[in-house]
């Protein structure tokens, strides 16, 4: 592998963390691959096997063992560095250790930190904050190049391609529900409790990831919704399901940014401070509705809110357009261009 222009990706993706880190890293990897680079992944433990299966379809990968210690992580990364000789590294973790960042920096190649909460950027040459709160984390700009804001949301190229399609038509009354690849707060089932009381929808698509433990329960309740409701466990082409929907119910994360790139308006439910602040800011721009800041919301209130919004087609169109103004789907391209310039300098 050495000498093939490898880029090392270190990420965690599992049922507890979710799979957003994986999919946005894959979006950047795809873009770098088109420039002739060879992504190689070091991924944290995932007992579901979802992370391993997704990466294995395309890239070389090393998966850390269960209960992996910090020293084991460093040893594994050292071995990959020795084999691959990376020309750059990308870190997408909830919180990285200083020892890991120092190890990557010691390769004398650029280090990218994808950082949601301001705790993952030590020694980074490029800091990517893909949400709406980049200026509020107090990044030290002298330490690295800061790419902050929704223009740098890392979403797969298929979403940008679909979003650019002029013929994309929303199906009136169609609802899309997705809370990411693992839905650790089990918001899908609570939202389904609401859908039984919604009168305005003509169809519903419930998308859950293969890492979602409650898929069996959802399957057992899908018939109660009626109106042609469909359950998809994983999807090879989620952009098509999202693009045709009039409204989505989701949380803050990659799913929200993907929907925005497709001009699909979203009603957002959040369950932590970072999500809450991002949703609050996006709602203030008229680009989404922030329905609830807790996983323990009232399903009947959600049903009423969905009906109100579904019956206001003008507002739906305005929300979708404003969301797409924020997220145009070219974030991975922009980040890759900056990294390639660093690699070549």
Structural topology:
Elements: E1 6-11, H1 20-34, E2 38-43, H2 50-56, E3 60-63, H3 70-84, E4 88-92, H4 98-105, E5 111-114, E6 126-129, E7 145-148, H5 157-163, E8 171-177, H6 187-195, E9 203-208, H7 215-225, E10 230-233, H8 238-243, E11 245-250, H9 254-261, E12 266-269, H10 273-284, E13 289-292, H11 299-310, H12 313-326, H13 331-344
Parallel strand pairs: 1-2, 1-4, 2-3, 4-5, 5-6, 6-7, 8-9, 8-11, 9-10, 11-12, 12-13
Tell me about this structure.
The protein is of the alpha/beta class and 345 residues long. It folds into two domains: 6-155 and 329-344, Rossmann fold, CATH 3.40.50; 158-326, Glycogen Phosphorylase B (Rossmann fold, 3-Layer(aba) Sandwich). The chain is built from 13 helices and 13 strands. The protein has a seven-stranded parallel beta sheet, with helices on both faces. Strand 1, helix 1 (20-34) and strand 2 form a beta-alpha-beta unit. Helix 1 packs across helix 13, helix 6 packs parallel to helix 7 (215-225) and helix 9 crosses helix 12. The longest helix has 15 residues, at 20-34. The protein is globular and about 60 Å long. The relative contact order is 0.14. The model has no long low-confidence stretch (mean pLDDT 89).
